[in-house]
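In response to the reviewer comment on reproducibility (Comment 2.3), we provide here a single inverse folding case reported in full, input and output, so that an independent group could reproduce the run without further information from us. The structure tokens appear first.
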């Protein structure tokens, strides 16, 4: 995988680090904030939470206004959702720490100690607020099955590689033998790194597909607003749907994918071979669900999600005199964060 070509690539900072990855209007006519690759990499959890809070609070305001000015407020709402997705794509590509924090922190008080109690988000109520159609619900469940099947294959590959690494002898009688073992260990470590990247890419690809191809922009906004004061957690939402629909559990689907992994070694880390999607007992096809339409997640090893799942071009919204509060971020619009 080329550096910077796909999801979550790690390596030297590329020359295009000053390329803009997200532009935020926050419902205003002119851009209010520009985020470059370099700034996305350095974006702190607090700064990320501040950006997210501003976007989602304005979505909530637009949802309230849709009863009075539906066309104008929906245009602004859709623009805000596009900006939230641009932020998520930037985090997927450049800042896994802040991306992972978005799922778990209270964005209103990101510095506060995280509660060890149960998740405060009411997932059944959040699902109801989204007002899903039957076809959308079925596609979400089908996507969940495929995602967990692919993750199960990747987890099995990781376990197999780890066992092989552990079995390499530490001591060799000859220098030549030691060099051979060193090369073998280095090769396994590289494959483990590719596996970790594949796990992140697979998960991010399917979640991005749900946001951009299954849900409407208004439904995404309802979902993000309903998660407040927490950030979104799509996997927990899908788990709630699965429980309501009497679908197999997460552990059952992960285990169902593992036995056949030996026949597909190497496929899951981006070699291009088939991983056997749809072949296991956990596939959408064997459940009566429609086929998952997301496509092969390995595309995201070569192209960023902002390209694969780009929104169709639409007219820019006119100026909307909504809430004027902007995120309090240090630095100039295009300066470091």
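Designed residues, in position order:
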């Amino acid at each position: 995988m080329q550096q910077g070509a796909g999801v979550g690539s790690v390596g030297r900072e590329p020359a295009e680090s000053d390329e803009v990855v997200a532009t935020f209007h926050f419902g205003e006519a002119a851009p209010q904030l520009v985020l470059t690759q370099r700034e996305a990499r350095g974006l702190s959890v607090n700064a990320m939470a501040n950006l997210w809070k501003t976007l989602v609070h304005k979505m909530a305001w637009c949802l309230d206004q849709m009863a009075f000015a539906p066309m104008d407020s929906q245009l602004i709402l859709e623009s805000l959702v596009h900006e939230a997705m641009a932020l998520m794509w930037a985090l997927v590509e450049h800042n896994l720490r802040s991306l992972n924090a978005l799922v778990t922190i209270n964005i209103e008080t990101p510095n506060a100690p995280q509660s060890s109690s149960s998740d405060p988000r009411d997932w059944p109520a959040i699902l109801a607020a989204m007002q899903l159609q039957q076809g959308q619900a079925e596609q979400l469940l089908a996507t969940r099955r495929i995602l967990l099947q692919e993750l199960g294959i990747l987890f099995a590959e990781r376990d197999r590689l780890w066992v092989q690494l552990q079995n390499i002898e530490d001591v060799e009688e000859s220098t030549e033998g030691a060099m051979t073992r060193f090369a073998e260990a280095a090769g396994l470590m590289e494959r483990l790194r590719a596996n970790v990247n594949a796990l992140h890419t697979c998960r991010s690809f399917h979640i991005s597909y749900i946001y951009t191809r299954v849900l409407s922009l208004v439904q995404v906004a309802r979902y993000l607003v309903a998660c407040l004061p927490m950030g979104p957690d799509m996997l927990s939402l899908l788990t709630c749907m699965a429980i309501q629909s009497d679908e197999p559990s997460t552990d059952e689907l992960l285990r169902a994918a593992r036995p056949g992994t030996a026949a597909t070694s190497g496929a899951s880390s981006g070699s291009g071979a088939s991983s056997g999607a749809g072949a296991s007992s956990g596939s959408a096809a064997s459940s009566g669900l429609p086929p998952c339409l997301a496509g092969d997640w390995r595309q995201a090893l070569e192209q960023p999600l902002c390209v694969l799942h780009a929104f169709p071009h639409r007219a820019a919204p006119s100026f909307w005199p909504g809430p004027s509060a902007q995120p309090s971020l240090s630095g100039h619009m295009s300066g470091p964060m």
